[in-house]
Here is the input.
Amino acid sequence: MREIEFDEVVKAVRNMIIHCGTDLPQDTYDALVVAMEEEKSHVSKEVIRQILENANIAKDEKRPLCQDTGLAVFFVKVGDEVKIKGGLLKDAINKGTEQGYTDAYLRASTCEPFSRANLKDTVGYNLPAIIHFDIVAGDKIDIEYAAKGGGSENVSRARVFPPAAGKEGIIEYVKEVISDAGGNPCPPITVGIGIGGTFEKAAISSKHALFRDIGSKNEDPEMDEMEQVILDEINNLGIGAMGMGGTKTALAVHIESNPCHIASLPVSVNVQCHSSRHTHITI
Amino acid sequence: MAKTYYLTTPLSSEDTRALKSGDIVYISGTIFTARDAAHKRLVELIEKGEELPFDIEGSVIYFVGPTPPKPGDPIGSAGPTTSYRMDSYSPIMLEHGSKGMIGKGKRSQEVKDACKMYDGIYFGATGGAGALLGKKIKSAEVIAYPELGPEAVRKLEVENFPVTVINDTYGNDLYQMGREMYEVK
Ligand code: SF4
Here is the structure.
């Protein structure tokens, strides 16, 4: 059994959150540079230029990339030979989240669903974090993190199709979701698609698909091809950066597919904005 | 062809009628922030015939809930929030003299009609460019509803704040026009 100090996890999570709040990940930055070069509309080109300038300012001056600093979402793989000394892993992640949001002056965006009351005050306390755990073999903890803004989350949708809908049905559905969303999710976006499993498995897969680096290939050649087809279809919608018209609505489409029930074909579409703040550490 | 303008607030009908959807505008001067909760209160004041916390004539309202400022800064990151949540309030604000709104995302037909009727403009700012836009804000002062936190009404002094005209005073909508131009059927 390997022992990891509670405080070590807190510190690692805190640093991840601070880093992500101000530094746009390289994969997203590089994809935006290419999109700016290829964009045909000059209004959208100018918007992408501002997005890149924003990323440079945020990084140099340690300012939040976006005022919506999101809900903190984690996918955690816990090795079966690891023990946290001094507390629960879940508590350590939440504590690191609170410290990161407070220390980096990130906005606390969590509230009660109906009273809409902020759960503490405007600084810090972006709790509870959304955490998905998995148990794997080994003596390490692997933590993937993303800050998930409201604008892009609000346009996300899930549905269970009959099996006959097939690939075509899924492609049409994704197009419909992105078309209805227009400029609201702050394009150029990344589109995560979860296919198969159950209703909730599809939704979680579509979220996790957003954590994959832009530009990386899907390991499944069939899904890789489908990602390309959907990306082209989305960019043909003409939505453009911030919905102002253009050829670069999406930077990437990522699919995670799972086996499902013989009677159903669940699909979930989760959208991430151009401020795709995600990172990953192994302890 | 889209043009570039440099405007100083308050805006007049002459200013707003010159603008067309797709034009790029750099705004300088005083603007005011308000989101849903603040709009609700402002509109209630108007309906009761009471005085607003700022002069609405020619005003530009920015839909934003900024991050807390770092020590020494006037404001934190301050990009636009999604505007449709203000759709039911904006026509009343325009009717009473406000001339501009800054946000992101589509507006309702009622808002577009009110822009036409009262010479109002809906400007889009780049969502997610909070650090860049925050830098264009030179000072910030809470002038009403401090209890609303990030949603309080703030008076901002801005310099060359970059926006794009989405809805002009002629009923045009850049979101529709831009998309039609680049859609591949
Ligand atoms: S959708 Fe993303 S970029 Fe747009 S305001 Fe929300 S967090 Fe910021």
